[in-house]
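Give me structure tokens for this 405-residue protein.
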Amino acid sequence: MISIPPKIIQKKKNLRTAQCYQNAFHHSLCDESDINNVFSGMLQNKQRHKLLSLYVNDEKRDDIKYNFTASLASMNKHNIYASISKLHRQRTGIFLRHAEQFDDQLTQKLACYLQPFLQKHGVPNGGLEMSLHIGNYGFTPSGINHNQNQGVSFQFHLGKHKKQMLLWQATQLVENSVNNSPTLAIQRLRDSAATYDIQPYELFIMPAQHYHIDHNELFSSTLVITTKFYPTKVLFQKFMSLMKQQFLLEDDVCFPDYLQHEELPELYKEQQNKCVRRSLYSCLQQAYYDYYFKLQSNCGFNHVAPSRNMDNISITSSTKLFLHRPYQLKLLTPTTKQCVVYARNHKLTLPKNSALIEMIDGFNAGYCQSFHAWLQALRYEWDEDLCRQFVYKLYQIRAIDIYAE
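Here you go.
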């Protein structure tokens, strides 16, 4: 699969400077059929109306959004994008957030494309988010935008016409204009903006911490991948939420009975503080691992891929197993009896097996392994049923692929 050109990520300054890159991606990365698949997946999601925004002549129209999605649901999925493109009689903007969860095949292609970037710079602590901007909406109807948690973004402009991006670095020029009417803001600030014309199938790199607005005079589509960075406070809140789940769900994370008594000797009070600190640290550490390893196992995308249909799936000794690229498995051994495998944003808790490290390393290195080899390596500590269940689960959550010889 194609990946981001090395020249873009070799130097950090290339990610700190707004720039258009020609021939940086091919239409096979994302085209009309992919957009059809994204909208088809969205229509099956119960949260679709929260993630979709519809604007007509700069006005947000929630009143017609439900009819719009209903009309899309009634047609063949191969005609969805063609139908949307006919809305150009009025200035219309369609914006879809968290699109990564609606088409796993497209998400996989983009994860492959960005893999060199992630390997060089690491997975951002807030992950990656995919969005779609479609229409002939003029200036972005929501106004000049500035997201403090947003890092560099990769804008894949799919055409069919060019678009403009206007960027500002000097925050004092626009901080009073954010979320105002785009027309009012642009009239005052357009002369001070850095303007970029983006042609179809050009990649636009937008650096972090910029105020920006885009302009589509004619009907066009852009797919945007945004890196997200959370401040320490937000991350800590996420870890605290995960810690609460640990206290509720994990049997081995609890306080001794004597800590429930109000009157304790001084010696017990000191022991109480030690136990509390140890338990809190253990839970915080586990929350940290759960958050980051799940994110890393899914190439930074914070979504769960739809499960595969397991009907008529048979795994025999000769069945070949290989990793679903570019995703990797992460292994952690938090206790002497258990190990944890993180795969495609899932956490799988299993009995410990000392041979699992070598097998997972082989997977991550790109080796194709037979199920027979897995049984031979793991049989001393796992029985065949557990091995089979583990492999089936990895296949079901799209962490591995299989084929029979």
